[in-house]
Design a protein that fits this description.
The complex is a heterodimer. By secondary structure, chain A is α+β, with helices and mostly antiparallel strands. Chain A contains 1 helix and 1 strand, in the order αβ. The longest helix of chain A is centred in the middle third of the chain and has 11 residues, at 13-23. Chain B is mainly alpha-helical. Chain B has one domain: Serine Threonine Protein Phosphatase 5, Tetratricopeptide repeat (Alpha Horseshoe). In chain B, 57% of the residues lie in helices and 12% in strands. Chain B is built from 7 helices and 3 strands, in the order αβαββααααα. Chain B has a two-stranded antiparallel ribbon. The termini of chain B are far apart. The model of chain B has no long low-confidence stretch (mean pLDDT 95). Classes of the chains: A alpha+beta, B mainly alpha. Chain A binds chain B through residues 4-13, 16-21, 23, 25-34, 36, and chain B through 2-3, 5, 7-9, 11-12, 14-25, 28-29, 32-33, 36, 38, 41-51, 54, 70, 73-74, 77. β1 of chain A pairs parallel with β1 (15-21) of chain B, so a sheet runs across the interface.
Chain lengths: 36, 155
Amino acid sequence: MATTRAIAWRHDFDPALRDAKAQRKLVLLDFSAAPM
Amino acid sequence: MYPDPRVVDFIDDHFVPVRFHVKDQHDDFKRFGAHYGAQWTPTVLILDEEGNEHYRIEGSLPADDFMSQLMLGIARAAFDRQDYRAAEELYRRVVESFPNSEAAPEALYWAGVSKYRATNDPSALSATADAFAQRYQSSSWAKKASVWRARPASA
């Protein structure tokens, strides 16, 4: 059965910044009203 | 734009993704929305590890356009940290990967600026103006680059 991959959204801003620094990535911050 | 597997892979490769939903993370949506001046949804920001904003996308886009905008944002972050060689490479990748996107002429312009900043060679700007004579002539970026066109020496 096929599976749908999805973005692993996080909701913890400060830890995400720390992880971005550790992983040498940027942070993508999405303000959304899309149906969940 | 997000269900597209190419977008999922691109975000996974380049970003730590954080979402504040207007209902599900209401307090953070309000708090961070006020901090960053997010007045509409979707608003997508590209931030560095200090939380500094480098790029903003407001409104929904088809997958290719969204990815081209994300690439512009990654390039802008490199430009802002004065890594001009990386910025030029990233901007040129936007033009190569999404030549028909609205991001492409903007990327072509900033690739030229990045090369100039990296080398201090003004020919990087005149070459960019020449490139705009071949493509994206009707874009506002072509108009902006037109001042860089080399003028023939007067007799």
